[in-house]
Design a protein that fits this description.
Distance between the termini of chain B: 21 Å
CATH class of chain B: Mainly Alpha
Number of domains of chain B: 1
CATH topology of one domain in chain A: MetI-like fold
Oligomer: heterodimer
Helix content of chain B: 55-70%
Radius of gyration of chain B: 24 Å
Strand order of the largest sheet of chain A: 1-2
CATH architecture of chain B: Orthogonal Bundle
Order of helices and strands of chain B: HHHHHHHHHHHHHH
CATH architecture of one domain in chain A: Orthogonal Bundle
Number of helices of chain A: 15
Radius of gyration of chain A: 25 Å
Order of helices and strands of chain A: HHEEHHHHHHHHHHHHH
Largest sheet of chain B: none
CATH topology of chain B: MetI-like fold
Strand content of chain A: under 5%
Distance between the termini of chain A: 13 Å
Chain lengths: ~300, ~290
């Protein structure tokens, strides 16, 4: 199943030498536009972000302020709160979402191909709707009045109505539930593809030994899906640390900053208060944190996996 | 799949088990689909309700008045959809062309610095969006001074690293012998690309096209940042403004949300295979 990136044509190398010039030319011609776009809209902004983070930014003549932006960030209680919120959000969404996706993929596996595709399509559907459209719908689902959909639902279980997005006790939970119900499609499909890729012979051998379903799950499926899980985990955590669209659209970070994630804090600093220097410093801290966490995950979970 | 007991002797047990799994999956599917279902049926309600909003889980009424209401709210409503189409269309076409070209170069053309350049490109995927956001805004608004234009909406996403990565992954699987023998016959790299690579890469081009169009259609923050008049906004920004200006109009808001999502649903149901392929093609590598 792997679209491997093997380019081992060492044998034909000597033959090619005379052609090298023409290939250089066409190679660069093919990537020219991509390189220009990359240099202008990715590379330059990254370098610029580094510079701005040491400045008090003004459109005409910024002044260098050394590490002031970083210092102010580390001293800001709101920054630490936003980090805590981001970690809380990540811990509540990512593991649950991965577990759900894995379970569902396992459940889809024995069904007929056609039925599999129907379920794949259903679970993926929320991912094609825009975040703004979904936020509009969920805003009404979380209507704090007793007639609100979610309040009616928990009413069945005898729980009294909540001010879901308006109270600092439930606002984060509301965002978590919304995320869990609208973003598992891709990971289910990826898990299923990996499950289908496990070679039949492993199960046959296990059957000969009289292995049960759970034993097969534990000794065959889990080890084989480890790279997939690692991939999903790392991308989900990276994504989760940058998340702020739902918070921006549903709660604005409130109430009382209960849902202010780092991503939203940076956005607010930049485009609400126009503190570009501070926003740049915080974004680079975020980048460092994300890189560090990804590294940790590879170190502790990536053992024995060779790509 | 022999993870499950096949129950070869008793097809009945197998049928019962699969039905049970189907029911569980169906229940979870209901929870997943509910917000979308709720959005669509609510959009057919009356635009202005007397008294409190009545949430109904069943379509008790069918009128398109709320859609009319949404389009009458601003004379630019149609323009928003048009803007989204123009921007997403341009971004999609340019991504398909330039990502495919770059993907070919990075997978099959030998040129100096290829591996290094590709690594530098890939490194960009690790950088959070927040880092480039502010400088990108300054670049477009203060330096290029193209705020509130189509260029501002389109240029930064002309070709994305992710799409180049997808194209490269796919094309690495094309046998190099085909290209070598074309070279022997004297074909130029450009001829090889258009005559051999493009016809063989239709799948990945379709995947790139669909994912890019969807991303661009759904994108919200960049258009929010670089547009400042109603006539240049995209449907997502327009919908958000409608929501903030009319907090009490339940059905029209749902109608607006439905309008913003409908093109993607149509696209999804007609080209499902490519959507689902797009999910795995970038992910499964090990």
């Amino acid at each position: 199943m792997a679209l491997s990136t093997s380019t081992s044509t060492a044998a034909s190398k000597p033959l090619k030498k005379p052609r090298k010039h023409t290939d250089n030319f066409s190679g660069y011609a093919f990537i020219a536009v991509a390189l220009v776009v990359y240099a202008l809209f990715t590379a330059y902004p990254v370098v610029k972000a580094l510079i701005i983070s040491f400045q008090a930014y003004k459109p005409l003549g910024s002044t260098y302020v050394g590490l002031d932006n970083y210092e102010a960030t580390f001293k800001s209680a709101l920054f630490w709160k936003s980090i805590r919120n981001t970690i809380e959000y990540t811990l509540l969404t990512v593991p649950v979402s991965l577990f759900l996706s894995f379970t569902i993929a396992i459940m889809i596996l024995p069904l007929r191909k056609k039925v599999q595709n129907v379920f794949k399509a259903i679970y993926y559907l929320p991912a094609v709707a825009s975040g703004v459209a979904l936020s509009v719908v969920w805003l009404w689902i979380y209507d704090p009045l007793p007639e609100g959909i979610f309040n009616k639902l928990i009413g069945f279980f005898g729980i009294s109505s909540q001010n879901w997005l308006g109270s600092s006790a439930t606002a984060m939970l509301s965002l978590v539930i919304m995320s869990l119900l609208s973003s598992h499609g891709a990971s289910i499909i990826i898990y299923l593809a990996a499950l289908i890729g496990i070679d039949e012979s492993y199960y046959e051998a296990a059957d000969l030994d009289g292995a049960s379903f759970l034993q097969k799950l534990r000794h065959i499926v889990l080890p084989f899906l480890r790279p997939t899980t690692l991939f999903l985990l790392v991308t989900a955590v990276i994504g989760s640390f940058q998340v702020f669209q739902n918070a921006y659209l549903m709660t604005g970070g409130g109430p009382d900053h209960a849902t202010t994630m780092v991503g939203l804090l940076i956005f607010d600093n930049a485009f609400k208060y126009f503190e570009f220097g501070k926003a740049a410093a915080q974004s680079l801290i975020l980048a460092a944190v994300i890189a560090f966490i990804s590294l940790l995950q590879f170190k502790f979970l990536g053992k024995e996996i060779d790509y | 799949m022999a993870l499950y007991n096949q129950h070869i002797g008793s097809p009945k047990i197998r049928a019962v088990r699969n039905t049970l799994l189907g029911v569980l999956l169906f229940l979870f599917a209901l929870a997943t689909l509910f917000p979308i279902y709720f959005m669509v049926i609510s959009s057919f309600g009356d635009p202005v309700e007397a008294g409190a909003v009545s949430y109904s889980l069943w379509p008790h009424k069918f009128t398109l008045d709320s859609f009319v209401f949404f389009f009458h709210y601003s004379k630019y409503s149609v323009r928003w959809i048009l803007n989204s189409l123009i921007v997403a269309g341009c971004v999609t076409v340019s991504n398909v062309i330039f990502a495919t070209m770059a993907g070919y170069a990075f997978s099959k053309v030998r040129f100096r610095g290829r591996a290094l350049l590709f690594t530098i490109l890939l490194a960009a995927m690790m950088i959070p969006y927040q880092v480039t956001q502010v400088p990108l805004y300054i670049l477009v608004v203060n330096i290029f001074q193209i705020e509130n234009t189509y260029s501002a909406l389109i240029l930064p996403s002309l070709v994305t690293v992710y799409n180049i990565f997808l194209a490269k992954q796919f094309m690495s699987a094309i046998p190099t012998e085909i290209i070598e023998s074309a070279k022997v016959e004297g074909a130029s790299q450009f001829k090889i690309f258009f005559r051999i690579i493009v016809p063989l890469s239709k799948t990945v081009m379709a995947v790139i096209a669909i994912l890019t169009f969807m991303d661009s259609w759904n994108t919200f923050f960049w258009p929010l940042l670089v547009t400042n008049t109603m006539d240049m906004q995209t449907i997502q920004v327009g919908l958000k403004n409608f929501r903030f200006a009319n907090t009490t109009y339940f059905s029209p808001m749902m109608a607006g949300a439905t309008i913003s999502a409908l093109p993607m649903f149509i696209l999804f149901f007609s080209l499902q295979r490519y959507f689902l392929e797009g999910v795995t093609v970038g992910a499964v590598k090990g």
